[in-house]
UniProtKB/TrEMBL annotation:
Cytoplasm in keyword set: yes
Superkingdom of this protein's organism: Eukaryota
One GO BP: phenylalanyl-tRNA aminoacylation
GO molecular function ontology, one term from the record: ATP binding
UniProt protein name: phenylalanine--tRNA ligase
Family designation: Belongs to the class-II aminoacyl-tRNA synthetase family. Phe-tRNA synthetase alpha subunit type 2 subfamily.
Pfam families tied to this protein: tRNA-synt_2d
GO CC, alphabetical: cytosol; phenylalanine-tRNA ligase complex
Organism lineage: Eukaryota, Metazoa, Spiralia, Lophotrochozoa, Mollusca
EC number: 6.1.1.20
Record InterPro entries: aa-tRNA-synth_II, aa-tRNA-synth_II/BPL/LPL, Phe-tRNA-synth_IIc_asu, Phenylalanyl-tRNA_Synthase
Domain Aminoacyl-transfer RNA synthetases class-II family profile positions: 61-312
Subcellular location: Cytoplasm
Keyword Magnesium: yes
Amino acid sequence: KFTSYVISKGSNFSSSVSKQEVELTPEMISKGTWKEKSFKEYNFNSLGVMPPCGHLHPLLKVRAEYRQIFLEMGFTEMPTNNFIESSFWNFDSLFQPQQHPARDAHDTFFISDPANAHEFPMEYLEKVRQVHSKGGYGSQGYGYDWSLDEAKKNLLRTHTTAVTARMLYKAAQQKPFKPVKYFSIDRVFRNENLDDTHLAEFHQIEGVVADYGLTLGDLIGTINAFFMKLGIKNIKFKPAYNPYTEPSMEVFSYHEGLKKLVEIGNSGIFRPEMLLPMGLPEGVTAIAWGLSLERPTMIKYKVSNIRDLIGPKVDLQMVYDNPVCRLDK
């Protein structure tokens, strides 16, 4: 059995191989040469080559989400461009005694040049000195000799609450007092041991509301509403101690990777010894909270070691593989 074929020239037969065009150019259209060209068929199933581009780090994407949530809740962003603060604004204005362990060199990075700050609101500074050494506003104070030299020392801010203190003092100078809602998200620095959940440099989310008649319930409700918008629902509170807030609470959230509750922030109601020397009216209460940016991001991206999220050990492939941050609101 034989099979035979008859081969003949078709309409597209050519004795030479011509290159097919892959795109229609403006020049082809203007000159009319497209009529004589052979075009390659489009393959609509091909994804093509992704153009090289950068990707935002997960921290920056979560930071943008946090900022948007604060703005949606009616907060105003505070200026946080001063990484270097004086001990006065970082500690003394917050009614934190000069003998407090947090002010030791093993917990704080002090600056050697310039070592001291020199410009302070002197009337306010004198009130802070008084409430520390002798008390006032219903407080016994700490009963020690308050030192201006200690308050002058410059340092890398240990918390953005130093910015909050400046903003509350500024609000107190405006008469009559108007309620305020402030927030900030920026870096802070702590001279502490490094481990899976701690770094010497990290981001702090700070929120503060000052108004008449605020209570602990307002603080808990605000924090819960904030994290609900982030899709974090399993929030726990634990009583704590802070020199400048009373009552105070630590904020925890469950980490699926570590299989345990992880502290993600601190909160409380600012003490009268902090607010009244600023000039805020009696009856004004300020609720505040400071939250880590890194730890909620670890929970969101299921990262168990903070050094895999930020620092020299970060795997860039992790950044590339997470181009979009979508919070389950």
